[in-house]
Write a structure and sequence with these properties.
The chain is built from three helices and five strands. The strands form two sheets. The chain has a three-stranded antiparallel sheet with strand order 3-4-5, covered by helices on one side. Strands 1-2 form a two-stranded antiparallel sheet. The chain is an alpha+beta fold and 139 residues long. The N terminus is likely disordered. A hairpin with a 2-residue loop joins strand 4 and strand 5.
Amino acid sequence: MDEDIINSPEEGEELDESAIYRTYRMDFENKRIIGMVDGLDAICQSLFKTLQTRRYAYDIYDDQYGCDIMNKIGNSDLTPGYFESDIPAMIEDAFLNMDEVTGIEDVQFEMLDGDSVYVSFFAETTFGDTIVEGDINDG
């Protein structure tokens, strides 16, 4: 058999901290792939995609992937006070299983309409620190 293209660490061996995190670059506005992205830019994209993905909605993802915000927006039984206390927790919870994320701080949000919320937060990652911001919606 041909030599493996990607070398996985042996059991008990740790990953190299300087490994490159590389993935497809997504154009969220036009909903298409437009090349590749790596490092901190790839992490930022991954954070935003996680927030945009409704948790439990897609069989391709396990029940730990995604965010619960879109499962709550539009529920007329929930008060603004509920969102004030729960949206920061939902955002932090979305990243609990991402080893690359070491901290989330200064979560800000604004309800834009019945099915959209603008979020902004400071993320500490293994590739550096960044501010993540954008509209989270079903579209």
